[in-house]
Amino acid sequence: MLIIYPYKLKSKSAAALSSSLATYSNKVTRVRPDGAFKNNYPENNLIINWGNSSIPGWWKQYGRTLNHPSQVAIAANKLTTFNLLKEAAVSIPKYTESLAVAQEWIDEGNRVYGRQILTGHSGRGIRIFDSETICSPDECPLYTLDTKAKTEYRIHVVAGMVIDSQQKKKREGFEGGIRGIRNSANGWVFAREGMVVPITVLEQAIKAVRALQLDFGAVDVGYKESNNTAYVYEVNTAPGIEATTLLSYAKAFGDYYEHQ
């Protein structure tokens, strides 16, 4: 049986994945994150953990796992993620927990991103500082130095292999938004047309997923062409997926289920 364990039952991506995986097994189910689960098919199970950091009581009973909840919890926290990626020599932005160091970066003419929420996503809890002074009420648990990378990719990795790649591009005709935050609210979308992904971006994405001891993840990577450098920003364990990306995940998970 293929068991989808989502961070919330109403996750559209988890529901779509469950439907797509029916091609590979006639026994596919989504499990309530906060409920009990009785499995009548205890043999040959694969639990696909879609972004949930909690370990349910039934967890150890049901076979193989992709993305253990404890590793998902680490990936969800931006500071613990950066600490582990730094230890593994993954290329990441410079970062600090120090307000004083962040202020020095600003005084030198740099842009700095402050994370008010370490587990925030989609730009939630991000503050951007440049010429202004960071005051104590605005102190953040994490600051990152702007990489000045003009291009950003999302690289999807499953079992150590890249299964899909996308590039973040500004939606044509979109005006306004917050400069420096590349999310849908600010007019950024995922595209493939005319995309050529540098090898270093792919390499760092694979390395990041491995460093966090994840089985799969969608890695946001900035690329600075002037020095051919990739910067891993974060690893998503429950990315929004549809169309080509959805089919790529279904195939990767289906192949893993059948052959591992």
Protein architecture, described:
With 260 residues, the protein is α+β, with helices and mostly antiparallel strands. Helices cover 25% and strands 27% of the residues. The protein has helices at residues 12-20, 69-76, 78-87, 99-107, 199-211, 243-259, and strands at residues 2-6, 28-30, 46-50, 64-66, 95-96, 112-115, 126-129, 142-145, 151-158, 161-170, 188-191, 216-224, 229-236. It has a 5-stranded antiparallel sheet. It has a 4-stranded parallel sheet with strand order 2-1-3-4, with helices on one face. Strands 5-8-6-7 form a 4-stranded antiparallel sheet, with helices on both faces. α1 (12-20) packs across α6 (243-259). The longest helix is centred in the C-terminal third of the chain and has 17 residues, at 243-259. The protein is globular, with a radius of gyration of 19 Å. The two termini are 14 Å apart. The model has no long low-confidence stretch (mean pLDDT 88).
Please describe the topology of this protein.
Elements lengths: L1 E5 L5 H9 L7 E3 L15 E5 L13 E3 L2 H8 L1 H10 L7 E2 L2 H9 L4 E4 L10 E4 L12 E4 L5 E8 L2 E10 L17 E4 L7 H13 L4 E9 L4 E8 L6 H17 L1
Parallel strand pairs: 1-2, 1-3, 3-4
Antiparallel strand pairs: 5-8, 6-7, 6-8, 9-10, 9-12, 10-11, 12-13
Summarize the structure.
The chain has helices spanning 12-20, 69-76, 78-87, 99-107, 199-211, 243-259, and strands at residues 2-6, 28-30, 46-50, 64-66, 95-96, 112-115, 126-129, 142-145, 151-158, 161-170, 188-191, 216-224, 229-236. The chain is α+β, with helices and mostly antiparallel strands and 260 residues long.
